[in-house]
Specification:
Four copies of one chain form a homotetramer.
Chain A (H helix, E strand, L loop, with lengths): L3 H13 L4 E6 L2 H10 L4 E3 L1 H7 L10 H13 L5 E4 L7 H14 L3 E5 L20 H14 L6 E6 L8 H13 L4 E4 L7 H10 L5 E3 L9 H7 L3 E4 L2 H20 L12 H7 L2 H11 L7
Parallel strand pairs in A: 1-2, 1-8, 2-3, 3-4, 4-5, 5-6, 6-7, 7-8
The complex binds magnesium ion (4 copies).
Chain lengths: 298, 298, 298, 298
């Protein structure tokens, strides 16, 4: 099984590689395993998706240890790197340090924190205030996290919310530079525009000072090779497994409710055997042969 | 918000009503909310589904308090009754008593326990031993649970695994009668045959001594009105939201992986706004107006 | 067993009664049970003590749900009211609202929140900054908590840190009045002076506008009837079970380490039987007679 | 900070060393830290003590993950090896395997499991049945645990309850040999007699086949050098910090309740500063200087 160090080294390599890389969202051990089985090289543990699956809002309604509980199951069920959406770090530098220690213990490869205030507000919501953190305070938080990690490859990604908060390019650049100086392994530059102009402007001004990660949830119509051309390091597909599962469950529930039979549903869902396979039941079958006494012994 | 008592009274009413009732599976707060929004009157918190979503096997790999953690979120996100798949009760009568107290605290309407040994094995697995519990021990466990509940409507359903273990009709009847005598609010008679003959035999011999619940995962082709005709009280659609979500996430992950774009995915998944709606973000918008100081005050 | 409502009504009565009342610290189910058995009418779940027992600092290093985990055991092991030291409410008004819902679910009688910033710093530490919350923001947080509670007797106590932060009497009064207006059931006025002058000044200026709670950890030499005379409602003995247990365990560990025998320790510690009694083992003995099958049946 | 591997190597060395070694009980991070500061080389995480501190019985009322929650805090607060009282392994071989993986993740050095049935009953209780596990089933459980550990030094200790259950010497030897053959790193031979005759008999018959650990809670009057002479490897002082803390808290609570003042208590308890020291507050003071922005920057 991949160790924490293996995973973090793989994530770091993805950030540094000249090739455009892709990270796919998961919000549970099961969805994380599906991401790995599909062939993706890394998993995005989305704050929006995890909170939604808990029936909560993306406003730090779940405690940071409740998030850890999900991450532990995700990590145990997979071997590829997991990058955690760690919101603002769940408090000040001291809370962020504690988070790093716990993430390393769970075999998580990296954490992304955003320069807003606790409790945070989802960046894609309309008409909500998005006050930014003090730039020095946030840079020192990054430094505290980097000083705390024991695995040299654990990745800390600094997410800049300057565009989200309406501050524009200069502030975005100023913050990205400060966070990179503080030790961030990459910058996640977020934008909620329907087109990627903010990202394009940033990439030109940034001049390749360090790896840049993007989340094209709203500007999804831009072809991927445009991002490659601009020098983006990594794209996060941030919430699509969640949104796909909601669509499916709403449709399945509705059809069973209306038809009062499974006959028309059964062909459109995976088999119970496939569930057992995803649970790796065969390993237990083998182990039972090895570790349960035969009846004659009893 | 519906209290625990409201919910359990509703579940009890479903068990006792002459009409055939339906309970739909969920494994998370989000899927539970979808079940409620669809119109179902109750939710089945499936052990198979919850364990699978945690990346674990349906063999009591999750601790009983890890199951409670999921149930708490499910209960908080919904108002209709939740019936919990409580496996064997997670130990002896004393563990089962503690479980009842905690379920009542979380607003769960009822628990179904099955007459096997801890740790249990999923009933639909092929070629696995399914040793049954001692009938007296299990009946006393039911009684302990009933004696413990403080809400008179909390439902304890006794699941009989005699057919699953290959013991046949007489044992099934003998156990169902013992558990009903011990205080069970209903009997869940399980069968993994592709046709419903075991259930049909049981219903004839049972002669309507008490409410019967079934789980037609394998004999799903039987029309629902056949169940009604036999006098079944309630049908559980036991794992179909999970299996539907797996199908969707596998397809979505694969397509995004292959196409490296969201363009063809976006029309087939719910919008981010729909996620926000399911999270009830609007309530927080209103609350922020009420409870956050206006800027001028600051 | 006392319901949540009973407990909160008792706590409210203590706050409102003309008699000086006393609340004793606990930090675990066991210490809480000892407080109850001693005869105290209520329990203070101290943030300092709970964090120290977890090996953490009193700086919100434990998540709010880790605190809830302790409170759940404390509540289950006792029947008298528990007043929780809820620090700053663990975030903004929305986090505080969620807290209230969970505390009510656990049967906790009330919460005390202090007007500082998250993450908080213990008030008795020397030379540490203790920035205060915005007064309007904090008052609205109190209001959000009061609007959220479903049990009319659940108590929200507003702790004023104006003296701790060096702001003086006027600010203390201004804040106490604002929080009382916002719905607080009582004011906890904190002081870390070795003498009770700040408290005396406050009580004179306060003029009995509402119940006042104090924590005389540092000014412990003042006789209790002085507090009664000033019109104090309730005194919290805030951390003395913890400090007493540390003294005892340090001495016991040291003596066993040095002497390599229990002979001289045994007379100075409670018996194993007393541990069993505190665990209420007898109830289980009785239940086993009732709910375990006799051997002949097996 | 000591890694898991360091700790387990130290524990293994203690088991194998010719010198009689001592392990001291703790039940919380705080008591664990006190054990370490006192000079002990290892910590016994007692099931009795941990359950009592949670207000629960030593009958697997706490879930195994609730025990892990305590162990995580204990491990984080200390650097010496922790040996966990893991009862029966919390289920079958598969549950015990999962336990090993989680204990290693938390930096726990070893686990002791006893050959009884889940849920277990405390061995020192009078007049309670103590049915033993099937010897083959238990030996295979030991083997499964040893096969699972990734750290070669992680210790699995097999506790034999043959004397506790009244089976006598032959059964004790037979079981000890079977468990050692299955891979156990040491045998814990338990006895609840007031004198150590059972232990003496066992040691003579055992003939030094492998390291033996004892728990002289009831036969505490035997001098330690007698144990050394018999060839015992390690003595566990199994519950004395708990029992000492209960005595202290009962006395402190009673005195404060009766006297309504702290004046006579204060000299007999540690200072608040000592609590801060145990919490390692100074490290946070230093970190705040490093990682909080100075005011002028703000
Ligand atoms: Mg997010
Ligand atoms: Mg099940
Ligand atoms: Mg406090
Ligand atoms: Mg024990």
């Amino acid at each position: 099984k991949a160790t924490s160090t293996d995973r973090s080294a793989q994530l770091k390599q993805m950030l540094l590689s000249p090739k455009l890389e892709f990270i796919m969202e998961a919000h549970s051990a099961l969805s994380a395993k599906i991401v790995e089985e599909t062939g993706f090289k890394a998993i995005w543990a989305s704050g929006l998706s995890m909170s939604a699956s808990l029936g909560l809002r993306d406003s730090n309604e779940a405690s940071w240890t409740q998030v850890l509980d999900i991450l532990e199951f995700m990590s145990d069920a997979t071997t590829i790197p997991i990058l955690v959406d760690a919101d603002t770090g769940f408090g000040n530098f001291n809370n962020a340090r504690r988070l790093v220690r716990k993430l390393e213990q769970l075999g998580i490869a990296g954490a992304c924190i955003e320069d807003k205030l606790f409790p945070k507000t989802n960046s894609l919501l309309d008409n909500r205030e998005q006050p930014l953190a003090d730039i020095d305070e946030f840079a020192l938080k990054i430094r505290a996290m980097k000083d705390t990690q024991q695995d040299p490859n654990f990745c800390v990604i600094a997410r800049v919310e300057a565009f989200i908060s309406g501050w524009g390019l200069d502030e975005a650049i100023r913050r990205a530079e400060a966070y990179l100086s503080a030790g961030a392994d990459a910058i996640l530059m977020h934008s909620k525009q329907k087109d990627p102009k903010e990202i394009e402007q940033f990439m030109k001004a940034w001049n390749n000072q360090g790896p840049v990660v993007i989340v094209p949830t709203n500007y999804y119509q831009t072809p991927t090779d445009t991002f490659q051309k601009w020098g983006i390091s990594t794209v996060i597909w941030a919430n699509h497994n969640l949104r796909s599962s909601i669509k499916a469950m709403q449709a399945t529930s509705k059809r069973i409710y209306n038809e009062q039979t499974l006959v028309n549903i059964e062909p459109n869902i995976v088999s119970v055997k496939e569930v057992f396979r995803l649970q790796n039941d065969q390993e237990l079958v083998n182990a039972e042969k090895k570790y349960l006494p035969t009846k004659s012994k009893k």
